[in-house]
C-alpha cells in the first residue's frame, strides 16, 4: 500500500513507557524528509505496519516473526531485558500448579508477551492452560480465571496495588530457564518503504539512535514524565529503566532467535525467522 512518493513517512510509536527512551528526544518535524508519528498500543502498530498503513514502527517481536519476509530490522534498537522487566507480569490467584492447567486471562495488547507466556506454561512447566482474552483490568480478569497477564503500564500500576497475588515477571522466568535475554519489541521498516525512500529511512533511524543516546545520558526528564503521567516514585522509575536495554546486539539476537525457535516448536509460528537488518553504513555506531 502506498500513497505515492510525496506523502510523509509514517512512524509507529509504542505508547508504553518501555519505549520512551528511544522516542523521547525524537522530533519528526526536525527531519530533512517529511515524517509523521502514529502513537498506538503494540497490537495496533503490528496491524498497521503489516497492512502498510505505516512505514516503520516499534512492533512486538512476535509480529516481526510473523511477517519477517516483509520487513527489515533497524539495527541497535529494541526493548529487551536480561531478567526482570517489571511490566510483563502474570498475577496468580491460584497456586502455580493449578494455573499451568487452569484458566489464564490475557491482555490482547501484545502478541510477544502472550506467546512468551504460552512458551513458559507449555514448554517450561509442561502445562496446557485455557487462555481467554480480556480487557486489561486485574479485578475483572481474575473473577473467573486462575491467573491474569498484564503488560506495559497496566502491569506496572497493578504491581503497585496491595492485592496479595503472587506475581511472576515473565522476563525473569525466561532468563531463569534459558539464561538468555528476552526481546519484547523491535524497530522494523517495510522493505518496500526502505527501498523507495532510503534517505528518509536513514534520517529517521539516525534520529532514533540520537534520541536513545541522549536518554541514556540523562533519564531525569523521562522519569519525571513517568511520575506525572503514571505515578510512582523516582526510585521506581530509575530502577525500571535501568532494567531495560534498547540495544540489539548479539546477546539480544540470540535470545530472540531462541524465542522464535520455541514458538515454531509449539506451532505459534509456522517457519524459521530470519533477523535481517536494514543495510546501513556503520556511521551511527558512534552513538551507541
Number of helices: 13
What is the CATH-assigned architecture of the largest domain? 3-Layer(aba) Sandwich
Could you estimate the helical fraction of the residues in percent?
A: 40-55%
Number of domains: 2
Superfamily (CATH H level) name of the largest domain = Periplasmic binding protein-like II
CATH class categorisation of the largest domain: Alpha Beta
Radius of gyration: 19 Å
* Element order: H for helix, E for strand: EHEHEHEEHEHEHEHEHEHHHHEH
Q: If you consult CATH, what is the topology of the largest domain?
A: D-Maltodextrin-Binding Protein, domain 2
β-sheet strand percentage: 15-25%
Low-confidence stretches: 1-5, 282-288
User: Please, what is the average pLDDT?
Assistant: 92
Number of beta strands: 11
Structural class: alpha/beta
What composes the largest sheet? 6 strands, mixed
Distance between the termini: 33 Å
